[in-house]
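Minutes, methods subgroup
Present: GH (chair), OT, SY

1. OT presented the first of two proteins processed in the latest run. Sequence and structure tokens recorded below as shown on screen.
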Amino acid sequence: MSGFAPGIRAVLAREVRLALAGGGAVLPAGFFVGATWLVPLVVGPDADTLAGIGPGLLWLALALAGLLPMERLFQPDLEDGTLDPLLMSELPGEVLALTRILAHFVASGLPMLMMAPLLWLMLGLPLAGVPVALASFALGTLSFFALGAICAALSAGVRRGGLLIALLTFPLYAPVAIFGAAATFDAARGEPVGAAFVFLAALTLGALALAPLAIAGALRLAA
């Protein structure tokens, strides 16, 4: 793997630069903030109500925001012919797939995670729960990007495949959202890290292990 390090760094830098180009990476963070900020205006400012729905609301907004960049994750490379030389390079397709996931996590996921503590406090949730909640959101975002990338690779070549990606992705998101919401509800109640967080971490590791294999196979078929 050390022999691939220069190529991985070059591909990672390229992918982050492309993800940031045109401000497209800011769109998920903007959606995440906007969707969460609107809720107090709709349900009212009652602190107990906001605290009761806050963790679940943040996970719903996080999942939907993570879908936004998926349609353009592999489609541009397929359309302009970049995908073929990437797959024929010295780097294995699985390494390229994992690098693409990490690049979009850096470009789109980190801005969402930076805003998450502020939104957590805006909903009246306790400050003491921020570390566990932020760790849960980080794991969930990685899972969402890995699982969404699988569906993006499967739908590569389908024009305007955003709806197809959403239909394929939502069932995969469900276990992550369930355990992630349970972990953050525990954090909001001041309870220690429990089984829900452990299951969330296990799902994230499984997604990161299996996603590169699925993505590489799907892209080879698409190319």
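2. SY then presented the second protein from the same run.
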Amino acid sequence: WTVKNNLHELTDARVILALPAYVSFDEKNQTDVGNLYYDGTTRQVIWEIGRLPVSVYQAKAEFNISVTPVAADRDKILVLSPGSTVSAMDAETKDTIIKKTGPKTTKLEDDEIAGLNNTGRVE
């Protein structure tokens, strides 16, 4: 994830992703700021950024997931992420900002190398 900010200071910034049942969080993660963790009860990856001043143009977080397809998934494209929700409070306007990302699949749409010869279908 990359969160960018260049207008007003943000507070209570966080990113949430609910993982599909066949996707597992493997506890390996890294962040520039804040704390990233997995809530096993809700199956959510949560990045608590907190305060993001304008002087910090962007913050990044990374984490690993694993997928365990079953026989019924053969020849299907699986959803790895149904999309994340980013929320924060604009410190100047006091408005809550909410942004949602699109889904990511086994087709790996953003990966130029995988896109060269990857249909995204489970084999």
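Chair's summary of item 2: The CA atoms of residues 25 and 40 lie 9 Å apart.
Next meeting: continue with the remaining queue.
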